[in-house]
Amino acid sequence: MTDDKKHSRITRSLVRPALGALSGLLAGFAALAVAELVAAGVRPQSGPVVAVGGAAIDRTPAPVKDWAIRNFGTNDKLVLQLGILAALVLFAIALGVFALRYRRTGAAGVLLFGVVGAAAALSRPDSTGLTDALPSAVGAVVAAALLYFLIGRLQIRGPAPDDAHSARDDAGSARDDSSRDAGWDRRGFVILATAAAAASAGTGLLGRALSGSKSREAAASRADVVLPAPASAADAVPKGAQLRIRDVSPFTTPNKDFYRVDTALVVPKVDATTWKLRIHGKGVTRPVTLTFDDLLRRELIERDITLTCVSNEVGGPYVGNARWIGVRLADLLAECGVKPPSKGGRADQLVSRSVDGMTIGSPVEDVMDGRDALLAVGMNGEPLPFTHGFPVRMLVPGLFGYVSACKWIEDIELTSFDDYDAYWVKRDWARQAPIKTQSRIDTPKPFARPKAGSVMVAGVAWAQHRGIDKVEVRVDDGPWREARLAAEDSRDTWRQWSYDWRATEGGHTLTVRATDRTGEVQTEKRTKTVPDGASGRHSVVVTVE
Predict the structure, then answer these.
(1) How buried is residue 486: exposed, middle or buried, by Cβ count under 10 Å (0-12/13-18/19+)?
(2) pLDDT at 186
(3) What helix, strand, coil percent values describe the chain, rounded to 5?
């Protein structure tokens, strides 16, 4: 065999597997595109990537989810989606190469994509029925057919090209065979692959456009909202509540900077004109279904309230303060005949349900004990952003978000802790989780290198619904020194603090602790976030020059 023939054979041995892999990728692309189009007609959350991602979140152990939040922050969902797509790419490539040898089995293997996606969609708590399986199923069938026909164009037909050429040479009858390059249908493959790629791209764009039209309707409904003036407005923030110190968190957290921790891979875009809230369950003598306009016509109150996520590590960023406007939840429950357990009520748990299927269980006693538990419709002077629960969310001062702050709420059921475990409780988090007394050093930052002399140490402290009474700072193993507290807005908001440190050269460890109004001192005992929130004292290491 000549060197040219050897080179040609080696080239063919590389080209066909590469084209097989390309065939698998094109089939995978088609599956996602078709699934997205079908999901636009069913509902966006039924798409395979979202469904599989949601199912993965549902089955992720609490420590793993906590690790993801700690390391990826609010990008944890993006990382998960990218991981799913990467796994799909590898699966598609492997199937494409496998199908070169086992065409029918390889094409049938694509159907596994549909089975996994359909099962994930049907397992989601917000599943609306068998129609949720359609996007994955239809996408998989289309992809299987496409892979089958693409691989068919790569099948070797007749004798190997080198052998054929040798036979023709021996017979003295060599002729041009360019129409069947390397024994497979090059022209047919290129035409089919190009058409499939174009059709998939168009299908995907159409699906996004249709999904986008629903999002635009929801956005239009939000743009039309005019928040009424509250019957009970929040007091003006005291002038001394915001310290004029660089790098300290602002007293009011802007909406764009407010933390977001939830399980929604796709932020629900709910049309306020069609939204409804149902209140029912144990001890509800007068069940009710309310529209968004019904809530806006009720007496609204405005309050500054600090929210904290249970996944917040000591010194972490998942805490923020905003001015909320909404309806008193206790008043609404009372109108429905609900009584707290201390007054003979039958239900001790309020289960709030989101449009994405999330369930959150809150103690009825806390909701109705006089604190400003709200069904909020506004945040910092505007309708709730979609990422923070538009059109309506629930919040209860003094409780971690996973037991109080249901976003995109659509259902409230009165029940008992003995009868029902909400989403996070099923995943080893505590049933009840009052916020712990915490403080954080915002400045100087860890490993900062300030100059010797006067160094301002400052940050925030919180103990919602109890209030902060004192903050102290310690340098290395020295005595605790009382910091200067900023003015208090209310016991439901965080409080800024500062300490003028006479810094000396060298390495130092700064530690902070807070004392709440009940006299409880922030514990030095370090615990993880699971099952009811992290505890311990925040410290930073700096080098003074």
Answers:
(1) buried
(2) 86
(3) 40, 20, 35
